[in-house]
Every structure is written in C-alpha cells, then in structure tokens.
Design goal:
Elements lengths: L8 H17 L3 H7 L4 H29 L1 H24 L4 E7 L3 E6 H15 L3 H12 L5 H27 L6 H21 L7 H4 L1 H14 L10 H5 L4 H28 L5 H27 L4 H21 L2 H29 L5 H30 L3 H16 L3 H7 L1
Antiparallel strand pairs: 1-2
C-alpha cells in the first residue's frame, strides 16, 4: 500500500519554487542574450540547452532514484539548479568580453562573449542535473494510491502553474529597480537554495520506494552477489529496457507528440501575437497569466471532481480533443477568438496532462518508477529541442498555419487515446 501518511505538499512546494526560480529569468532572457552579443537564433539555441542536456541527464537521474532513493537524487538535482543560477549570476556581473566574432549564413552575425558563454554553460548544467520533474513524479507515485494519482498529479501541475503566475510578476517588479535584471537573478539563486533546504529537511524518503520494498530480498542475496562480483542495482532497466516494457512505448510516443505540439506553439505564439495581433509584452504577459490562472482552476477543483466520476483514459481522450479545438481557433486568430482559445487550452491541457501522468505511473511497476519517469523526460527533451527549433522556421513559412501543425500533433494523440482501453483495465 502507498505511504499515505507522507504529505504531498512539501513536494508540491519544491516543485513550485523550482518553477518560480525558472520563470523569474525567462521573461528577459532574450534581452540578455542580445545585450551580451547574441541574436534571435542564438537565443533559441540557448533556450534549447536545457532540454538537450536534460535528454542526457534525465534517464540517468531517474534510474539512480530507483537505486539510491528519491530524496538523494532530488537533492542532487536541486544543488545542480542552485549552481547553475550562481553561474548565471556570474554572467551578469563580469565585463562583456568578446571571444570570437561570428558571421555565419546559418546562425547570422553575433559575438560570442564571456557572459554569453556562461549563460550557455548555466542552462546546460541545469539541464544535465534537471531530474526534478521525473523524480518528483516517481516520488508522488510512491506515496499515493492509484485512485488518487490523477488528482495528485493535477495538484503538481497547479503548483507548476502558480510558479509561472508569480514568477513573471515578481520579475517585473524587481527588474524596474535600479539594479535591473540582476535582482531577479539573485532572487532565483536564493529561491533555488531554499529548495535545497526544503528537500533536506521536509521531504522524507518514502518507505514504499522500490529500494525499500526489495530490501529483504536484497539482504538475502547480498552475500551471493558480492561473491559473484555483481550487484542487483545493475538489474535496474536502462533506456532500451524501459521502452520495451508492455505499453510503455505507446505512452512515451504520446509524451513526445504532446510536447512537440506544445513547443511549436510556445515558439510561434509570441511572434504571432506581436506581428499579427499587434500585442505588446504587457498584453502577452497578461494572456499567459490568465492561462496559468485558468489551469490552476481546472487542474485543482475541477479535475478533483472529474476524477471521482471518470477514468484517467476517458479524461485524457476528452482533454486531447478539447486541446485540438484550441489550435484550430488560433489559426483564425482575432483577439476575441484568441482569448476564447485560451479557455479551450486550459480545459484541454488541464484534463489531458495529469491524466497521462497518472496512466504512466500506474502502468509502470513500482520499483521502476524512477527509470520510466526519467526516460519520459528524455522524450520530452527531444520533443522540446525539435519543437523549439522547428517552431520558428515553420512560422516564417506558414504564419498562423503553424498552429494547424501543432494541432495535428495533438489530434494524433487524440486518435491514439482510443487505444488506451487496455491501460484503463490494467490500472483499475
């Protein structure tokens, strides 16, 4: 039985402050990159550093959490985040010293400066140690019962969206001071350090973690394994073993399609808003704040009500269909229709995403939660890399037709969702 006596709220708080720290800096990252000698393409590459290196680090950290425990890996990951923000702060404080002047037909003209190089290093290091999400998902799977899983993941999404609500607002308040963008970066450093303290003192290691479940068997086999020069931790599944598990590859393919569509959207929409809708930064920020607020409502009380009446598979199918409507509306894109699309995005994503995380956690064996969540992070990272790069190129050729491409990705998810009946039967 899952360890219901362990509260989920310390983990939700850790997730919130992690998102808060990230969202403090992202609103003005493009301006920093340009100030330090880069251009729009270099900004895209800098943004992609996190998912590129998370693609490498995510599965390893997830697998380590199965072997050594969730808390230790969460702490390691949070320390990595703290160090990355310290490097980022150093980039803000050192002189802008040119390293090489680049004139490329593909990347355009830019100057690689020392602060710009440090930003790349900071984002790459944060991605390499960025196992927070996958390990947090596995942790919550350890301490919750199957019937509560979708609701709990909904609360995890709520904590993420709250971070994206308060982060940009706090960044706006801090950046108008005489210290400019340095103050939000200092805040990100302090917030990430608070995350370290919270994990160290408030997040216990769940006894239902697969490492503990297998302790008796491990103790009995330990002497034999030592004599043979082997260890049972080597039996933890790697990348190929995970995707060969029954039903897992289909769910990971769905992960990939969802995040491919999301990242195409998040790359193209700000350009669409600025060029086609003539929005300014304040209007765009208001739009995303409204979206995050609606997501909090949907993924909180609305999803909690829905999960008591409908299966995860049914909620996932419904959510993916509603999300398709959002992208169709964006294609026709007047201001009014765009704000109507916001409601469809919040409802669709709010039902679809927590339900998918719940299905994946129930399909996986308990002792493999970390490994599977880590591999899912790799699929997310790969989709993010492709989507971030492809979204800008697509919009330059297709304009608002880019949203139809993103919608087609989600429609593919909707079609695949009708094959989830076996998951529904297996997990109930």
């Amino acid at each position: 039985m899952p360890e219901s006596r362990i509260s989920i709220y310390p983990m939700l708080a850790v997730n919130f402050i992690g998102t808060l720290g990230l969202s403090l800096v992202l609103p003005f990252l493009i301006f920093l990159v340009e100030r330090f000698g880069g251009n729009a393409i270099i900004y895209g590459l800098a943004a992609s550093m996190y998912p590129v290196f998370q693609l490498l680090g995510g599965p390893l950290l997830g697998r380590w959490s199965d072997i050594y425990g969730r808390k230790k890996v969460l702490l390691l990951s949070q320390v990595g985040t703290f160090i990355s923000w310290v490097i980022f702060l150093a980039a803000m404080l050192i002189p802008i010293t040119g390293i090489v002047d680049v004139r490329s037909g593909i990347l355009g003209s830019f100057v690689l400066t020392l602060p710009l190089l440090l930003i790349f290093i900071a984002r790459a290091f944060d991605g390499l140690t960025g196992g927070n999400v996958s390990v947090a998902n596995a942790y919550l799977a350890d301490i919750t019962e199957d019937k509560d899983r979708s609701s709990v993941y909904g609360k995890l999404s709520v904590s993420t969206n709250l971070g994206f609500i308060f982060g940009p607002a706090l960044a706006g308040i801090l950046s108008v001071t005489v210290y400019g963008e340095i103050l939000p970066v200092i805040a990100a450093v302090l917030i990430s350090f608070a995350g370290i303290l919270m994990i160290a003192f408030l997040v216990p290691e769940p006894r239902t973690h697969g490492l503990h479940d297998a302790q008796v068997r491990d103790d009995e086999a330990q002497h034999t394994e030592m004599q043979a020069g082997t260890s049972n931790v080597s039996d933890k599944p790697g990348f190929l073993e995970v995707i060969r598990m029954p039903g897992i590859f289909s769910l990971l393919l769905i992960y990939f399609l969802i995040f491919l569509g999301y990242n195409i959207f998040y790359t193209a929409f700000p350009v669409h808003a600025a060029n086609n809708l003539a929005w300014n930064a304040a209007t765009l920020g208001l739009y995303f704040s409204a979206l995050s607020l609606l997501l909090v409502v949907v993924e909180g009380p609305v999803l909690s009500w829905a999960t008591k009446r409908y299966s995860d598979a049914s909620l996932f199918t419904f959510g993916s269909f509603v999300l398709c409507i959002n992208f169709l509306l964006l294609f026709f894109g007047t201001d009014l229709i765009t704000y109507c699309a916001l409601v469809f995005f919040a409802v669709g994503n709010g039902f679809m995403w927590p339900s998918l995380m719940s299905i994946l956690s129930k399909t996986a064996k308990k002792e493999y939660q970390g490994a599977i969540q880590g591999v899912s992070t790799s699929f997310i990272g790969l989709a993010s890399i492709i989507g971030l790069i492809a979204g800008g190129f697509m919009f330059s050729f297709l304009d608002s037709g880019t949203f139809l491409i993103a919608g087609a990705m989600i429609f593919g998810v909707f079609v695949i969702s009708f094959k989830m009946e076996p998951f529904k039967k297996r997990t109930q």
